[in-house]
Amino acid sequence: MILGIHGSVRDGLTQALAEAEEARCEVLQMLPYRRHSTPDEDELRFFRARLRRSCVKRLIAHSRFVPSLASDDEARRVRSVELLVFELELAQRLGAEAYVLHAGAYSVGGTPGEGLRKTGESITKAVGRSDFKGKILIENVPGGGRRLCGSLEELAQLRDAIGAGAQSGVCLDTAHAWAAGYDVASTEGALKFLALAQRLFGGAVAAFHLNDTAALLGSHKENHAHWGAGRLGREGISTMLAHVEYAQTPAIVETPKTPGGDRENLDYLAGLLDP
């Protein structure tokens, strides 16, 4: 895997790039814009110019908000599609090769199947209205309640619902998998998880989020932690890192932002890649 970080855009787009450069990463994931502040063409042009000169060679955009793509409220779903179009177009102008998206939740009184169908239709519609040329990567989530894509099977169903109307793949998050009930902390559990992903997605696994977690197995809780400070340990993640079919796959660390934390987490994982 090619290790990278999620960079902060709080102080501008180039802040995220600077964080990745400081951590000596080839891969960067970032939000496409700051909260309540859309980048203008000058900022985008400056970012792209710096990216061309950077050690960062691969860029992934992550959705800022979880849109209501499966909502029974037609007006809300229309607004969500419009927001997705906006973010996809920014991702294209940033130079991102992929855009990571959470599927969100289905409406009260609905069913997961209906929610997946509506989400697939909404994503296809948004991609058709945007100029984004990269892949849409659907991320697994901790699950629970009405949240869609806590299971890999639901991820596969959503990709089927998207169909050929958009280039789609998946992004697999270790912390979310654990919270959804997949024992990725053990060698056996990690191998089973990857085997299921291979059976359902084949080569469509286009990115990983490598996160430790303080959450309990199957708790459906979101509680990312620094590597070595959570419950996942070394065994399962070492097994995942050793899979040669993912040698060129981006693997993003999304652990809490603390001084030196990104570098410490990358060093921890790199030590497992090269024991």
Pick out the low-confidence regions: none
What proportion of the residues is helical, as a percent range?
40-55%
Strand composition percent? 15-25%
The helix/strand order is EHEHEHEHEHEHHEEEHEH
Shape: globular
> Gap between N and C termini, in Å?
14 Å
β-strand number: 10
Largest sheet, described in full?
8 strands, parallel, barrel
Q: Averaged pLDDT, please?
A: 96
Q: Largest beta sheet: what is the strand line-up?
A: 1-2-3-4-5-6-7-10
- What radius of gyration results from the CA coordinates? 18 Å
- Structural class by secondary-structure content: alpha/beta
Give the count of helical stretches.
9
Question: What does this entry look like structurally?
Answer:
Helix 4 packs across helix 5 (152-162) and helix 7 packs parallel to helix 8 (235-241). The mean pLDDT is 96. The protein is globular, with a radius of gyration of 18 Å. The protein has an eight-stranded parallel beta barrel, surrounded by six helices. Strand 3 (58-62), helix 3 (74-94) and strand 4 form a beta-alpha-beta unit. It is 41% helix and 16% strand. By secondary structure, it is of the alpha/beta class. The two termini are 14 Å apart.
